[in-house]
Amino acid sequence: MSRVQRTAELFTALQAPLPQSLPPRLPPAPPTPQLRRARHAELWAAVQWPPGQFATDPPAQLAQQALLAQRYTPRVSLEPPDALLLELRGSVRLFGGLQPLLAQLQALFAATAVVALAPTPLAALGFARAGKSCCLTDATRLVSRLSPLPLRCLRWPEASLQRLAAVGVSTIGEALRLPRAGFAQRFGADLLQDLDQLVGRCAHPRVTFVATERFSSRCEPSFELTDTARVLHTIAPQLQQLEQFLLQRQRGITALLLRLIHRRQPPTQCVLRLAAPEHRAARIAVLLQSKLQQVVLAEPVRRCELRSGPLLACAADSTQLWQAGEHGGGALTQMPAFLESLRARLGSAAVQGLCMAAGHRPELLSCATEPVWQSASARRVATAVRDTSLPWPAGRRPLWLLPDPRQLPLAVDGSGHPLWRQLPLQLLAGPERLETGWWDGADICRDYYVAADGQGARLWIFRERDAYRRWFLHGYFG
Amino acid sequence: MTRPESNPQLQQLLQHPALWRGRSIAPQATVATGYAALDAVLPGGGWPRLGLIEILTAQQGLGELQLWLPALAQLTTQPEARWCAFIDPPFELFAPAFVMAGVQLDRLLVIREGQSLWAMEQALRSGACDIALTWLSRVSSPALRRLALATEQGRAPGVVFRPAMAEHESSPAALRVALAAVPGGVRLRIIKSRGVSRDHVDVSWAP
């Protein structure tokens, strides 16, 4: 056949119409023995926690456990919601044998979880889910050890499990004995692949867990730094690196840790917290400066370490025609920055917002919160849905509240009126009875009055309705 | 003292174009106090939006903060509201009273750490606050001067609550008011103001 003819045949073959329907998905071909040997070089440990262990925020808690597990192997893979898989073969020699390594793993996890070892990830997981903390390294005995386990350990869909149970299949061994082609046709190729991966007939690639990225950098100046101004000067290049690092990822940070290492004393730590994700080195330097001004160095600094908090999405704001505050331009952009500069100097606990809690007990009604900066557009909604129908009589709540009510002495003349600065108080309004909180033990039973003292200051006082009938001062109408 | 409004002859005389009165100087931005009697006395018809305001009281609880509630409600409900900073207040702020007066709590900021002068200056200078209120028992005149300059920079009024004995100290404040309690309200004595002679006005609380 000439070359021209062959090309023409190939061309017609390519032009032929494609079949309308794809052929049915075939079960994977049985693997070659060579592959099997290579794969069984792996040794997987499964760590399975009981259900409900990670009640609050399961992904974050699992990731935290994965970070712990990464000290034994770099190949840690998550099995959400409540299991981890660790490939241990590569770490056996480093830890001086399998038994010491397993002992360390058990010490770390066995208090709360079941740890099982097997040559394939799914088998290890199956043992762990069945509650068998076995250590199986011999691949030839895998099938015989797996056979008695219930199929439920594989966490297949409930419908498939019921159909399998209907044909009398409830253990892994029974499922493995079913004919492959028929199994794939009746229960799906996915389950057949699970079985193949379980006994190591085909590969089971796992995604390795990668910890959240953070910026970390250190610098050792050529001489010891004696004052904080020099520290700031020294870490300026690192802050530039941080800005580059964040810019490349289009991320910002809300927390930054600066550790100053001394010769003998424990390191000085300086934590910077920001109200909004920030990436600009200049801004971070200004905040660090006001933070460092309060730091007293016990000893000269030998090394500076910088470590960022988690990276957060950061939207770069567009520049404006007007300067901030000029013609109303960008006046609101300074509000988070103001919070940060206050917090940098005074500490984050010193700056608080105010909010109201539901209820009637005065001491629980008003609470301090994290001040939340809402943009003007988000806020309009909040204003619109505001509920103004409060249940109390107007003008009957003081502006100032004492955190602990102060007991007032009684007048000696027998009138029963309370004294304030040795003078009897005049009751202006009341009583207003508050009797609530019986459900949680901190119940109150009080009659509240508005009272005036001789100088005209108005006070919010109450009388307890118990056997003692004591008077207390609870607030000022400032 | 005879009020010009009550005397028709004096009123007629005041219409004369050659007569110049102190309160007719350049108008200044103000925020309504919420009390008609007080608005009538203050230049521009309200609290000034710029400069330092001193409130002098003999003791806590005469109604010095109550006086500010309508203005605070007005400032916090505007769409472009900035922070209202309370710096080192003497007691805990009680949220229900503020909510009942119509103040939006999400714009209130309570700052406590002892460095009240620094925090006050930052709040006024930053341009991030609509108003900053602080309680100072002792403060030097140069420190007040610093605050007065900061209010001009950040274009926000600063309110300083001081004890009554500070009345005879010199002060760069644009408005100085002394409070005294009267039954059902409070009497304001204006010690210093642009364009207002010594005067007093009674404000009564809503029943």
Report on the architecture of this protein.
The complex is a heterodimer of chains A (478) and B (207). With 478 residues, chain A is of the alpha+beta class. Chain A has three domains: 33-199, Alpha-Beta Plaits (2-Layer Sandwich), CATH 3.30.70; 216-316, Dna Ligase, domain 1; 400-476. Helices cover 32% and strands 24% of the residues of chain A. Chain A contains 15 helices and 18 strands. Chain A has helices at 3-15, 33-39, 58-69, 98-109, 121-129, 142-146, 158-166, 172-177, 180-187, 189-199, 228-249, 281-292, 334-346, 362-365, 376-384; strands spanning 44-48, 76-79, 83-87, 114-118, 216-219, 251-262, 268-278, 301-308, 311-313, 351-356, 366-369, 400-408, 419-420, 423-424, 426-436, 444-452, 458-464, 471-476. In chain A, strands 5, 6, 7, 8 and 9 form a five-stranded antiparallel β-sheet that branches. In chain A, strands 12-18-17-16-15 form a five-stranded antiparallel β-sheet, with no helix packed on it. In chain A, helix 9 packs across helix 10 and helix 11 packs antiparallel against helix 12. The termini of chain A are far apart. In chain A, 28% of the residues are buried. Residues 16-24, 32-40 and 381-387 of chain A have low confidence and may be disordered. By secondary structure, chain B is an alpha/beta fold. Chain B has a single domain (36-204), classed as Rossmann fold, CATH 3.40.50.300. Chain B has six helices and eleven strands. In chain B, the strands form two sheets. In chain B, strands 6-4-7-8-3-9-10-11 form an eight-stranded mixed β-sheet, sandwiched between helices. Chain B has a two-stranded antiparallel ribbon with strand order 1-2. The longest helix of chain B is centred in the last third of the chain and has 14 residues, at 141-154. The relative contact order of chain B is 0.20. At the A-B interface, helix 13, strand 10, strand 11, helix 15 and strand 12 of A face strand 5, helix 4, strand 6, helix 5 and strand 9 of B.
